[in-house]
Prior knowledge:
Layout: H1 3-24, H2 30-35, H3 42-69, H4 75-90, H5 92-102, H6 107-114, H7 117-149, H8 155-205, H9 207-214, H10 227-237, H11 240-243, H12 245-253, H13 257-291, H14 308-316, H15 321-352, H16 361-380, H17 386-410, H18 416-436, H19 446-465
Helix pairs in contact: 1-8, 1-15, 3-7, 3-8, 3-12, 3-13, 3-15, 4-10, 4-13, 6-7, 7-8, 7-14, 7-15, 7-16, 7-17, 7-18, 8-9, 8-13, 8-15, 8-16, 13-14, 15-16, 17-18, 17-19, 18-19
Amino acid sequence: MHIVDILIFCSYLIVMLGVGFYFMRKNNSTEDYYVGGRKLSSLHIGLSVVATDVGGGFSIGLGGLGFTMGLSGSWLLFTGLLGAWLSGVLLIPKVSDLAREKGFLSFPQYLEHVFDKRVALLAGLISAIGYIGFTSSQILAGAKLASSTFPALSINQALLVMGTVAVVYTVLGGLKAVIYTDTIQWIVLMGGLVLVGLPFAYIKIGGIEAIRETLDPSFLSLQAISWQKIVNWMFTIIPIWFIGMTLYQRIYAAKDTKTAQRGWFIAGLFEYPIMAFIGVILGMFARVAMENNQLPGYTFDSLDAEMGLPVLLKTILPVGFLGVVLSAYFSAIMSTADSCLMAASGNILTDVLKKHRAKKSLLYSQILTLIIGVIALLLALKMTSVLDLMLHSYSFMVSGMIVPVLAAMFTKQTSSIAALASMVTGGTTTLLLILSGRQLPLGFDANIYGIATALFVYIVTVKVSGKRAY
């Protein structure tokens, strides 16, 4: 890698750290640290939401899907569009004004308002565990990108570099640093991919003629995917828009309900079609390059599908442009890693330790964020697949919490006992099925069975208890 690219990339990292230091001086309370003072605009909210949700995991993961299945992989983020718009219409009006009135800092505080402290405590634990796993997936995505771009850098060394930078500026700056860096990072990502990555890659591989001659026609179809796969993605990703701590923090951070809703609609459009097709098309370009021996030193046996895109970019981009695109992908990765760190530390401080009103709550917040960042980094050292780690983390959170959230939103009879029972059985069922590694009936993922179990347990418990329990 040329020294010019290295300098561009290092300059980008220094700017991100600078934002963290800047907002460290602006934070005076946990409300500043976790919800940005509740004064943020729809554009910042929208760009932060899409940067967080798509992030590096989906960016690298979409490249892997494009490499293996082509345009049909874009359906992954169509579920993100549905989730964003559904939650914008159904969820935000129910929680936004209430959050400002009650001073909520976390998602489980909403469940505590509807149910009780036990439900909030369990939700805080489930959310924190899930977001630690999700943070790990982003650090792993960054490590894969860095190690494939810098030949002298091992994946473990890359993990340490990525993890350290993301953790440090998040610990220092809190949610304001996260949201403002997300805005910068999303602009860098879009500019780098649309203006540099796509045109250079398209020309280098030989254009549409090379694509048609090299790839099976199924790669250019939106129908080369099973309905079970789409259903699995829908049940994993749409519910996260209703239970994701990172998303609730942004609802709370918006200056009013309409601002939050506009932010969600902006985010949905950026997810699909914009990022969905950019990601899979670049992955397809990497597949064409691989098939035509344009990636020297790599074979199908030696190249992980999720590494195809970074290797392609390293191979084709001229001096200077590689540093821009590399910064773009690291932008996506860190925009999710920082948000997930904030979510996990917020859950533990607010919902588990109940220290958000303590005199030293801001210091506690920073210490917790640092500890969780280290744990996420250690977990990333043990994992190999970015997309699998992300989707497993999502599945655990969704099956553990979606039923109580839906009950809080749409039913008049809410039972705390039923909520607790559904959370334990739903999350446990999904976790056990994932760990078993078994092929499940109908080709569905573990979390569908976890959600079904949680719903059944909730309904039965409500009927048996026969009373309202707040």
